[in-house]
Amino acid sequence: MTILDDIINASTDSSVATADLLRKVQVVAHRLGATDVVAWAKSELAGYDAEAELPSYRTMNTSVMGVFTGPYQSVIRQQLTIPTPELESMWLVEFRVPLTELQALSELEKDPQREWPAMIVKAYEDSGVFRMQFHRLFSAHNVITRQSLKGLIDIIRSKAMEFALELQTDYPEAGTPGGPTVASEPGLSSTVIHMTNNIYGDGTNVAAGSEIRQRSRVEMGDLAALRREAEANGLSADVAEEFVAAVQAERSLDGTKTKRILDGVRNGAIALSGSIASDVAAGGLVEIVKGFLGL
């Protein structure tokens, strides 16, 4: 049984903690050289920095409950259903805390809440979009259901399983000591890019979209596809054009100009767009050149 089997089995075993499952993913990703997946596993375990890009599943649309006070110390609790354009984002909650904290929140006896700052409460009250006669908005909070948190954690488990299943299909030895890496097996880069996109959601990475496997294939002699996929692997339009011209002229991965660009990507001399790792980008470029040349 390989470590990929361990991940697949653990992902469907409720007795295995999600944190332990992610540590196995981290081991495999580290051995592969899949730096983006390593970063994801680490961030899930330790929490996301304030400036870090969040996976789409860690941003949740919630309901908002308002507390109105009025005459004779009366209190009315009412759901706020009409956001103002300026405060619409307050209906969204970002979860940057470590996975273990999410787990603890999901196991509370009551649904957790996020209190609105006093200045936001006042701004909503002053907007006049929602009023109660003789009452003013005293406080407001997001209602985060425990079930939605459990669903979030389940998404993480599913993504760990999908990662292992995708690797196992084409690279069953992936994650074993001495097994294939992104650097030694360029075809692995497509799987890694696809998984990274799957984690963070469409539009957040340079090779976005659920069809990355199909789009990353380049048929022999298809210049348009080669140019498109060179940009999808992080090259700017100008560098992609230079890369395509070099490949077309030299017809080899070892050509002087082609190799110079590949080496520049690997060592960071050529800046890449998006958050794609340099080693993954270089592996992807090698793969599309092989397709174009029919190697």
Keywords:
12 helices; single chain; alpha+beta; elongated; two-stranded antiparallel ribbon; four-stranded antiparallel β-sheet; 295 residues
Q: In words, what does this structure look like?
A:
The protein has 295 residues and is of the alpha+beta class. Among the domains are: 85 residues, no CATH class; 110 residues, no CATH class. 50% of the residues lie in helices and 10% in strands. The chain is built from twelve helices and six strands. The strands form two sheets. A four-stranded antiparallel beta sheet has the order 3-2-6-5. Strands 1-4 form a two-stranded antiparallel sheet. Strand 2 and strand 3 form a beta hairpin. Helix 4 packs across helix 6 and helix 9 packs across helix 10. It starts with a helix and ends with a helix. About 5% of the residues have low confidence.
Task: Give the helices and strands, then pairings.
Blueprint: H1 3-11, H2 18-32, H3 35-46, E1 59-61, E2 63-69, E3 75-80, E4 92-94, H4 99-106, E5 113-115, H5 118-127, E6 136-143, H6 146-170, H7 188-200, H8 212-215, H9 223-232, H10 237-250, H11 256-266, H12 278-293
Antiparallel strand pairs: 1-4, 2-3, 2-6, 5-6
Helix pairs in contact: 1-2, 1-6, 2-3, 2-6, 4-6, 6-7, 7-12, 9-10, 9-12, 10-11, 11-12
Model regions low in confidence, pLDDT < 50 over at least 5 residues: 202-216
Biggest sheet layout: 4 strands, antiparallel
Percent in strands: 5-15%
Overall pLDDT metric: 86
Q: What Rg, in angstroms, do the CA atoms define?
A: 24 Å
Structural class: alpha+beta
Query: What is the distance, rounded to the nearest whole angstrom, between the alpha carbons of the first and last residues?
Result: 33 Å
Shape: elongated
* SSE sequence, one letter per element: HHHEEEEHEHEHHHHHHH
User: How many H/I helices?
Assistant: 12
Biggest β-sheet: strands ordered side by side in the sheet: 3-2-6-5
Give the proportion of residues in helices. 40-55%
The beta-strand count equals: 6
